[in-house]
Amino acid sequence: MSHDTDKLIRQLSLVAFLMAERRPLTARDVKGCVEGYSEMSDEAFARRFYSDRAELGGLGVPLHSQRDEFTGEELYTLRADQYFLPPLELSDDELAALQTCLYLLEGKFAYAEPLRLALQNLALGRPGFSDPPSAAAVRVEISDPDYSAEMSGRLSKLESAISKQRTVKFRYWSISRDQEAERSLNPYALLNDNGAWYVVGQDLDRDDIRTFRVSRIRGEIRFATRRERDFKTPTDFEIDRYRARPPWQIGDLVGTARIEVAGDTAWWVERVYGESGRVEDGVFVTEYSSLPLLASWVLRQDGRAIPIEPVELRREVADGLRRIREGHTGKPLEPAAEAIPPVHDAAGERLPGPVAPERFAVLQSLLAHLLSRCGDEKRAVIDASELVERFHIPED
User: Fold this and answer.
1) Which of 391, 349, 396, 339 lies closest to 370, judged by CA?
2) CA-to-CA distance for 288 and 252, rounded, in angstroms?
3) Which terminus of the chain is more exposed, N or C, with fewer CB under 10 A?
């Protein structure tokens, strides 16, 4: 059995033991009753128990400790309110809407399967998310803007590097420089912005936090070392700082633009884009990573924004206006004909999600389901086929 599998079983067994006993437990209790600890020496157990508690805390499962006032021993507990989500009362309509969203995303969205697991946890004890679509359901073919066969593998590799805090290397195409180069990155987080996936982390080559669009990664993503952990994510890192940025500021910033905005537009620009620039005497000053995307924003203002500098931005806007004019001259195109929906051989078959949920997430959800079925009792009888179907786990 691999080191990762041993650790996974040990940590889930620890959680299950603490939740089942419902009382403070000593380290001796844990060592004697939790699978994976009993064969260890006292020194090895102390190291592993400490690291397992730290990792569980990082996963959102905090173990609390306090000293026994009589014996002086450390006592460990895991409260139910620290493990289970607060009760969420979903109406039938809300549950149906979520199930419809899940069905639409399956097969074309890299995280459809983790999404199913998350929604299943929210609807704990309610049917729906493990059932195949009904005969009346109509499939709508959609995809992320950057969706490709390689995307799921890249996301899985980056997720693994983020959770294990491993440095990665990859070749990256910079759209602003129109060139490829090898990059070394300590990845901190993944985020989705307008349907495109980005990884944020410490760029070791430039010694700065940078954002990389996952679809522009070329070739294989490789771990830089064989160490178990290469870095620690800074405690002050906040992924929210990188959300909701304007498209022209995603990526490496390469310059500053000045755009004249009309009086009835300046207040709106300052209110909406105040975090991305500033308005000085009717001029919007903003940094950019992509001139074409900034020019696209200027064109969408319908004449209420006029580029001042750089010259390349003015040229890009002029080229865009020329293309718009050319696109509206000559004979109009014929309207598109009605698309014939594809025929699926098995209408009720559930398509697999490209990115599978992490094993810890699956087992944690399984544990929550088992504890929920037990209720106030220590035991419950559950059909194995129900668990296989609900959590998509092998029968063996």
Assistant:
1) 391
2) 8
3) C
Q: Is residue 146 part of a domain?
A: no
Residues 231-249 pLDDT 10s:
999 988 988 888 878 889 8
> Into how many domains does the chain fold?
4
- C-alpha 120: how far from its chain's center? 17
Beta strand pairing status for 179-193 and 25-26? unpaired
40-53 residue pLDDT tens: 888 888 888 888 88
Does the model's pTM come out above 0.90? no
Any residues with CB less than 8 A from the CB of 63 and at least 6 apart, and which? 18, 53, 56, 57, 76, 77, 78
Choose among 51, 55, 54, 20: nearest CA to 34. 20
Identify the domain boundary among 63, 82, 101: 82
Looking at the structure, tell me whether residues 129 and 169 fall in a common domain: no
**Full residue range of the structural domain in which residue 275 is found:** 255-327
Indicate whether 231 belongs to any domain. yes
Question: Hey, what are 315's tokens?
Answer: 């040229």
